[in-house]
Amino acid sequence: MDSIGADPAGCQAMSSSEVWDEDIATRYDASSAEMFAPEVIGPTLDFLAALADEGSALEFAIGTGRVGIPLAARGVAVTGIELSEPMAAQLRAKDPGLPVVIGDMATTRVEGEFDLVYLVFNTISNVRTQAEQVECFRNAARHLKPGGRFVIELWVPPIRRMPPGQNAVPMRLTDGHLTFDTYDLATQACSSHHYFTQPDGTTLYSAGNFRYIWPAECDLMAQLAGLESEARYADWHRAPFTADSESHVSVWRKPV
């Protein structure tokens, strides 16, 4: 998982997701700087803008607006749902006009119907129970116009990299940021352990907890929500999804 961890003490009863605090919100953009690079964000925006077709879009877990703000700049009417008030505050500081509702993505309703609902950067895994993940799909379906699409970006758990007896996989190994993911194969629980090298040479540790979902499991959740599978790609460039793909971008459609 690539998402930065949160303080479990910040959890709210309404959601199994960890609520990201002000400290994480303040440093989120800098710690995820590579996700803001044009070569990363560009294909994401191209993909989503084509599906929205200058219509309306709802982003679940909109965060600090990495995707929502530039997508709105392309003429899409973007609304966001965000569980963390500090993350939403970072977004509002950058774009006060983009509407954001504070709430969880499994149950929170906003006014209107949308041409597109989307979840990026593995964020559906922040919801840590299967039942609540199903409700995310159902909530997406409730917000969609007939013919509208639900899109998620999600990593494929690299479990086959692990030899017997091992439960950790390195995910990021750079000079300033190391990430190791640990997996519980019985519960599909995953924890991301982040080690950030600080300017003074000290190390900052942060952890986040998730529940991974297989692509076929996503399809079943979509079916339970009344959505139909439309496409699955390996990335935002629409590369073919194969048995070796490490991530997927999947699209489901609400029947007309």
TrEMBL record:
Annotated TM spans: none
Keyword Metal-binding annotated: no
A single BP term in Gene Ontology: methylation
Domain of life: Bacteria
Keywords, comma-separated and alphabetical: Methyltransferase, Transferase
Listed GO MF terms: methyltransferase activity
Methyltransferase domain span: 58-148
Gene3D superfamilies from the UniProt entry: Vaccinia Virus protein VP39
CDD domains for this protein: AdoMet_MTases (cd02440)
UniProt cross-references to SUPFAM superfamilies, sorted A to Z: S-adenosyl-L-methionine-dependent methyltransferases
Protein name: Class I SAM-dependent methyltransferase
Native species: Kribbella koreensis
